[in-house]
Design goal:
Blueprint (H helix, E strand, L loop, with lengths): L3 H8 L7 E7 L2 E7 L2 E5 L4 E7 L3 H9 L1 E6 L5 H6 L4 H4 L8 E3 L5 E3 L4 E13 L2 E13 L8 H4 L6
Antiparallel strand pairs: 1-2, 1-5, 3-4, 4-9, 5-8, 6-7, 8-9
C-alpha cells in the first residue's frame, strides 16, 4: 500500500531548478514559473518541460509548438513568485519585467542567467500535466551565477 506521507516526502526530495517559461500564441505572450524541467538528450539537444494542462500557457504551447526557458539565479525568488499566478487573475506578468522576444517569438527574461528556446517535437499527456519534449533551437548566456532551486525558496510543488 502506498504511504501518502512517505510519497510526498520522497517526491519533494527530487531537486528542481526554477525557470520562467515564456510562451506565445500569435501576438499574445505569457510566462509561468516552471520547475519540472530537465535535459533529455544530447543529440539532438532535447529538454523536457512538464506543464499543467489546466493553465492558459499549456494551450499556448500546444497552439504555437514553441517555448523558451529563462534560467533564474539564486536570489531571484521574487521574480519566480511573480510568474506563479495565472494570467487570467493577474493580467500582464511582464508589465514591469525587462524581457525581449527570442527567435521563436517567446519572451526571454533579460535579467536571467540565460535561456534556451525550444520547438516542441513530442508530448505525452498523463495525469494533470503534459510532458512537452522540446528540441533546443536557440540558446544564450546572459551572465554567470548559481541557479535558483525550488528547495531554497521554502516552496513545494508536487508530491
Amino acid at each position: 500500500m502506498l504511504d501518502e506521507q512517505a510519497k510526498k516526502t520522497m517526491l519533494r526530495k527530487i531537486p528542481h531548478g526554477l525557470y520562467v517559461c515564456g510562451v506565445k500564441d500569435g501576438e499574445e505572450v505569457n510566462g509561468f514559473t516552471a520547475s519540472w524541467v530537465m535535459q533529455a538528450s544530447f543529440q539532438p539537444p532535447l529538454v523536457v518541460n512538464c506543464v499543467n494542462r489546466s493553465s492558459g500557457s499549456h494551450a499556448m504551447i500546444q497552439n504555437s509548438q514553441v517555448f523558451a526557458l529563462s534560467a533564474l539565479e539564486a536570489g531571484q525568488k521574487e521574480l519566480a513568485q511573480k510568474f506563479f499566478k495565472p494570467q487570467r487573475r493577474v493580467g500582464n506578468k511582464f508589465e514591469d519585467v525587462e524581457f525581449y522576444l527570442g527567435e521563436t517569438g517567446c519572451p526571454i527574461i533579460s535579467d536571467s542567467l540565460g535561456y534556451v528556446e525550444c520547438r516542441v517535437v513530442g508530448s505525452v499527456e498523463q495525469g494533470d500535466h503534459t510532458v512537452f519534449v522540446g528540441e533546443v533551437i536557440a540558446a544564450g548566456v546572459h551572465r554567470e551565477g548559481d541557479p535558483l532551486l525550488l528547495e531554497s525558496t521554502g516552496w513545494q510543488y508536487g508530491g
